[in-house]
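Chapter review: from sequence to fold.
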Amino acid sequence: MSDRPPPAFRAAATGADPLARGGLRWSAVPLLAYKEDETTPFRAVTRQVLFHTPELAAEWRYFEVAPGGYSTLERHEHAHAVMILSGRGRALVGDAVAEVRPFDLVSIPGWTWHQFRAAPDAPLGFLCLVNAVRDKPLLPSAADLATLRRNPGIAAFLDGRGDGDCG
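The token string follows.
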């Protein structure tokens, strides 16, 4: 009998204390760049595609944002379901900004502006469930940014101010 798990099983995430230091990695899953188009504005993000099979109409991904990093500010037709696994940070969803910590659930409806930012001193790791077939994200125009910035809390978030409040 082999010690190797059957093909339907994946190895557990590695890391002795993932909630304290971040750095979750699945040994049988490639660590990928966050975006293939590196002209898209983001900083210090990696992703791992944990499940992508035709039997599931969804894709389950793990993202990790390094301290002080952020995902792309974007919106698209498809919805997201996000669960924070490690670290801390802040998230913009629509017209609200909130602190996020392990085991918080974040629902992102279609066509809603969203972005995740890690605290300056801690990584932020999260699972993201999306449709397996989905549309491409749209970046904000100058007019969209001006509209978002009318909200002082969103303007501070987009400028990276207030990230130290995640204590």
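Two observations follow directly from the output. The longest strand covers residues 58-70. The chain has one domain: 21-165.
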